[in-house]
Amino acid sequence: MHSKEQISHDDYQKTAEWLMSRTKHRPQVSIICGSGLGRLADSLSCRDQFSYSEIPGFPQSTVQGHAGCLVFGELKGRSCVCMQGRFHMYEGHSLLKTTFPIRVFKLMGVQTLVVTNAAGSLADHLHPGDIMIIKDHINIPGLAGLNPLHGPNDDKFGPRFPAMSSCYDRGLRSLALEVTKQLDIAGLVQEGVYAMVGGPNFETIAEARMLHRLGVDAVGMSTVPEVVVATHCGMQVFGLSLITNKVVKSYEDSDCVNHDGVLEVGRLRSETVQQLVTEVISRMEINNNIDRTSSAV
Ligand SMILES: O=P(O)(O)O[C@H]1O[C@H](CO)[C@@H](O)[C@H]1O
Ligand SMILES: Nc1nc2[nH]cnc2c(=O)[nH]1
After folding, report:
1. Which of 105, 133, 251, 294 has the most CB within a 10 Å radius?
2. Which residue from 122, 132, 262, 265 has its CB within 8 A of the most atoms of ligand 2, so it is best to mutate?
3. What dotted CATH number matches 9-285?
């Protein structure tokens, strides 16, 4: 359970330098596209793009709906890097590997992480097609001892015992709620609590009922390790769940979730998610005096 895998500061640095020597972009914001949401990268202009297979140290995406491409570009004048495809623990990657890109981004000068995901709703008020702004999370693998920060702490990135009580930036959450009014999508959007489970199977009814009683609004198999590592190294985080299905909580219910259905809702709503993310990024405050690679952490 406790992996002995280590990734050195030099390994992250080499990848950051490899990327920075191949693109002129110096991203301030990184975006991770959830299942079916890869088209978020389409809104970037002046793109430079790399397949994960050519980037030193990057794991490979194996999940349908996660293209495996890193795209640099401009979003309304903001320099961004967008992961078309994320890494999940259930693919067999260690948690350290699933979060490898986050520390690379930190070394490249990224200050803000925007995470998106597809998730199942446990809350009666969240329906397929709705968007949940993540207010907080429950790290179920983390509570059971699976955490990307396990092992020796790299003090250059952050402290041994990082606080997680305010990891989803309050200012960005209120900005997003403001933006939803202007985009006239406020009726689709609510704040809520996301829980990560290990997957790859979807929940049993007993598990769904347990999560519901614990106060979970939406459940998925990603995001939390990325947020933990980003928070540890001092990044600001904004998170969105696209609700793709209702999690079955009743033995009388014959509905059955599947990944194709998840991807389909992603495709149907990707434009709305794209608009929301674009507006939030274009209006967020950015500190432009950032050192990159060697002195970024
Ligand atoms: O969290 P993302 O990557 O959006 O994907 C979600 O959708 C997949 C299941 O359909 C799982 O990977 C789950 O985590
Ligand atoms: N665990 C989990 N992940 C999801 N991703 C999209 N929908 C779901 C779901 O219902 N459960």
Report:
1. 105
2. 262
3. 3.40.50.1580
